[in-house]
Design a protein that fits this description.
The complex is a heterodimer of chains A (about 240) and B (about 650). With about 240 residues, chain A is of the alpha+beta class. Helices cover about 35% and strands about 10% of the residues of chain A. With about 650 residues, chain B is of the alpha+beta class. Chain B is built from 17 helices and 20 strands. Classes of the chains: A alpha+beta (about 240), B alpha+beta (about 650).
Chain lengths: ~240, ~650
């Protein structure tokens, strides 16, 4: 099929970017979205032009590297998948596709579709851990955990840190991302010990690095490729109020 | 010439590690602060080591090519992590885990290392649980386990089909804690270009900042490589597409021997290749074989939909050939049996290069909910990729390149043949012999990183406490940086017509065709010629646009592919040299009448450790004889 691609090109963080139009004549519906971009890049490189830079790695939806705004949606129009799992069969012949990087102040563009997501790491460094040294752990079954609580902790823990929630939010809020980690640990006895310090430190850092407040629109949940639930944010708020 | 000394401690197998730890040299806390350690890679091994070393008080500098350490490819491991807890009361023990690995590896792994990996496995589970890893639990609140291939006990801890993600995020959190404390300094988006060796010791690395293109010098008293495997030599594999062998290969060219490069695991259950543009094969966890049955039609070329083929016309070929282990035979055995059926014309799907993995019977017996609880995300992923619902129809699967048992040669202390250079996790060769058992990769990587390396590295560093901070202005740093930059310039100045990926794809095809699941002398010799020709073409017709002083994805790829050409040559040589079949290395000339691998213990019970002898010169083979004191070498049978 034939596609008209409008891709955000930006040489580096300092330069001003703009949309550039590319025509792809021979896209197969069996390609993944990234393979379609691979094909475009192959053409560009063969013509000695600068290929479109985008982050990607595992290409199986788990590493969280890939992520771009496609036709106004983070990771494209299909719910609950990452860009690498987006198949071209969801697009129509002759369609125009707009491809942009995440747009959020705490995620500055590095080049083309690559953004700097180190703000996420900074929040995790502030408190996203349980303080235990290797060798100090008790026998694993010495602390029992209710299956339901453990399963709920798992459901929060599967965040891949891609940043789609921030990109989707009109306030560029990282509440869903932060709440996923807070909720995971809040539900486990191992995580309760330093729950107060954790939530205070992570929320403080979240504000410091420039993420906005929750917009209450639920865009983050709607666009999360791992379907992390907004109820995590409720738990984050509860944990936060309890911490003072 | 260096002689291999594996430094295996004396004494009975079960006491070696305890004795070693009791007698190893230590570094006192005040001196630890003065010692710098570089860790390259942030998977379970690398991030585990960096955080453990940080906890001990060393100054750690940690590097990864991804934008965040949380994305290292350990994240993609699905099925589980083994430990000898014996929570199921099914006869498990450290010894049995050790024995299963030795047998699973077809008697080509080092006993002492394997026993130790089994020994620390329980500590790993304790640690992850304490870090908040939400492993699956039973209703009474205890941890649950499941079975994996090649064993008859249930010892695999899991978090649905995302065990690797959960363990890696746990490890990432412990790394973050050390970053916060200032014990670890993290350098993401860096690629190691070369190792700096001064007076025979590893003293630092040359890295490229992938955002700015800036070349950086980093020095340390010891360097740890945790850079994973080289399964991407096949181009299409279950690995992350940027996974590469460059750091290990550069270390090899600086003097670290490369062991058993031809031992590559082809995983039996991956989503088959669907089209020619494909960049990646997606694994379907081995755990699925707990409840899924592999079959092909009994009639050649039967094109009916799977559900229309009646029971008596289905060939459950693993259950037929291996009744004792059935669908849970080890990966190498399952992959070859699948290839055999497909080559004989019984394969299904458009290409005939696929078989059914059928959950019908398990769904009927246990209910859809039970299957969903165990494999929900895998079933969804399969449906996303193929558009087919595996609750309704069998999955179609085919083998894919997955894991490399081979890697940098290390001694018992996980040190390579370069003093002060360590290799851990998949980057080393030591624990899996000629075939790795499922769920033992997370186990080994975590064991190496958290519990083994932090104990062995002090034996070396204890003698380094008088060495001040290593200067980065020495002639060695100067020269290594110059060579690294020259190479980048060489790649960029070819100005040909073809992309690095297109060469990679062609190289992968050669390797898959001639050095994949089944190998023979004629094919391997042909592969050598083809690789060499393609390598020549690469250095004449590659195109890398842009400059070296900026973010340049084509330059990154080109450097990696250039190294793959050299590595694959060695790999094929190793496969040629090993005139036997063992584990994943199956030479057609050496098989039993019923098509099983035929080992030759008299001549090949050794680790092949290859020494780099210089540009254009043949590698030198060193043999580490494998002595089996505890286990008797037997024909590996799963029948």
């Amino acid at each position: 099929m034939k596609l008209i691609l409008k891709i955000w090109r930006q040489k580096n963080s300092k330069s001003k970017g703009s949309f550039v139009t590319y025509i792809m004549d021979d896209v197969s519906p069996e390609m993944s979205f990234l393979e379609m971009l691979d094909a475009l890049n192959k053409k560009l490189v063969e013509a000695d032009k600068d290929p479109v830079a985008f982050d990607h790695d595992c290409r199986e939806g788990i590493c969280g590297s890939c992520g771009m705004y496609i036709n106004g949606h983070p990771h494209g129009p299909v719910p609950a998948i990452t860009t690498c799992h987006l198949s071209m069969r969801y697009f129509k012949d002759g369609e125009t596709i707009w491809i942009e990087p995440w747009r959020a102040k705490p995620f500055p563009v590095i080049k083309d579709l690559i953004v700097d997501r180190s703000a996420f790491d900074k929040i995790q460094i502030a408190g996203g851990f349980i303080s235990v040294n290797a060798g100090a752990a008790p026998e694993a079954n010495s602390i029992l955990v209710q299956k339901k609580k453990s399963d709920d902790a798992f459901d929060s823990s599967i965040c891949i840190g891609c940043g789609a929630c921030v990109a989707a939010c009109k306030n560029a809020s990282a509440m869903l991302f932060v709440s996923a980690k807070i909720s995971q640990f809040a539900r486990l006895p191992q995580g309760r010990i330093e729950a107060r310090e954790r939530v205070r430190a992570m929320v403080k850092k979240m504000d410091e690095v420039g993420f906005g407040n929750c917009s209450n629109t639920g865009a983050c949940e709607a666009e999360c490729p791992k379907q992390i639930k907004i109820k995590n944010i409720a738990l984050l708020n509860r944990e936060f109020y309890k911490a003072f | 010439m260096a002689k291999l000394n594996s430094k295996i401690p004396d004494g009975p197998l079960a006491q070696k590690w305890t004795k070693y730890k009791a007698s190893v040299k230590l570094v006192n806390p005040a001196n630890k602060k003065k010692l710098d350690i570089i860790v390259v890679g942030t998977g379970l091994a690398g991030a585990g080591a960096a955080s453990s070393l940080g906890e001990l008080g060393y100054n750690v500098k940690c590097f990864c090519y991804q934008d965040s350490p949380r994305r290292a490819h350990s994240v993609a491991a699905q099925g589980g992590i083994n430990a000898a807890k014996n929570y199921q009361n099914d006869g498990d023990s450290t010894y049995r885990l050790f024995y299963d690995m030795i047998k699973g590896g077809d008697y080509r792994a080092r006993e002492a290392n394997v026993y130790r990996a089994a020994e620390v496995s329980n500590d790993v589970i304790d640690h992850f649980t304490a870090l908040g890893v939400p492993f699956a639990r039973d209703y009474g609140g205890t941890l649950d386990t499941r079975s994996f291939g090649g064993v008859q006990v249930s010892r695999t801890f899991y978090a649905k089909g995302q065990t690797g993600q959960q363990c890696l995020l746990g490890t990432y959190s412990s790394l973050n804690r050390q970053i916060k404390k200032g014990n670890v300094k993290m350098f993401p988006r860096r690629e190691m270009l070369d190792l700096v060796v001064i007076d025979g010791k590893a003293r630092g690395i040359i890295a490229r900042n992938l955002i700015t293109g800036e070349i950086e010098r980093h020095s340390a008293h010891a360097v740890v490589l945790a850079t994973g495997g080289y399964g991407t030599i096949y181009y299409l594999s279950t690995l992350a597409v940027n996974s590469n062998a460059s750091a290990a290969w550069k270390a090899h060219k600086k003097g670290a021997f490369f062991a058993n490069p031809s031992f590559v695991q082809i995983h039996p259950t991956s989503v088959p290749q669907l089209n020619e543009f494909q960049s990646k094969l997606t694994l379907m966890s081995e755990s699925l074989r707990n409840d899924g049955r592999m079959w092909v039609p009994k009639t050649k070329g039967d094109k009916r939909p799977a559900n229309d083929i009646p029971e008596e016309e289905r060939d459950y070929y693993l259950e037929r050939r291996y009744p004792a282990f059935g669908n849970l035979v080890p990966r190498d055995v399952a992959s070859r049996a699948t290839k055999e059926r497909c080559d004989a014309g019984f394969g299904v799907g458009k290409t005939g290069l696929a078989v059914n993995l059928d959950f019908r019977d398990s769904i009927n017996k246990q209910g859809k909910k039970a299957i969903e609880d165990k494999y929900g995300n895998l079933f969804e992923m399969y449906k996303t990729i193929t558009g087919v619902d595996p609750y309704e129809e069998p999955m179609r699967i085919y083998p894919a390149g997955h894991y490399t048992m081979g890697g940098l040669w290390v001694d018992y202390e996980l040190m390579t043949t370069i003093p002060g250079l360590y290799a851990i996790g998949e980057a080393n060769f030591s624990d899996h012999g000629a075939n790795r058992l499922g769920a033992s990769s997370l186990m080994q990587a975590s064991g190496d990183g958290y519990f083994i390396l932090p104990n062995t590295i002090s034996n070396y560093l204890a003698d380094e406490i008088r060495v001040p901070k290593i200067s980065t202005t020495s002639p060695e740093f100067e020269k290594t940086e110059k060579t690294a930059v020259e190479r980048l310039n060489n790649l960029i100045s070819i100005k040909g017509k073809q992309t690095a990926s297109s060469f990679h794809k062609r190289l992968g095809k050669i390797m898959w065709d001639y050095c994949g699941m089944v190998r023979n002398e004629e094919g391997l010799r042909k592969a050598l010629v083809l690789i060499n020709d393609l390598k020549d073409e690469f250095w004449k017709d590659l195109n890398v646009p842009g400059t070296i002083n900026e973010l340049n994805i084509e330059l990154e790829k080109a450097g990696r592919v250039a190294d793959f050409f050299e590595l694959t040559e060695l790999l094929v040589h190793d496969a040629l040299d090993r005139k036997e079949s063992c584990g994943a290395h199956f030479r057609e000339e050496y098989q039993t009448p019923d098509g099983e691998a035929q080992r030759n213990d008299e001549q090949f019970a050794y680790v092949a450790a290859w020494e780099y002898a210089g540009e254009g010169k043949p590698h030198i083979l060193h043999k580490e004889e494998l002595k089996f004191e505890e286990v008797e070498m037997k024909v590996r049978s799963y029948k």
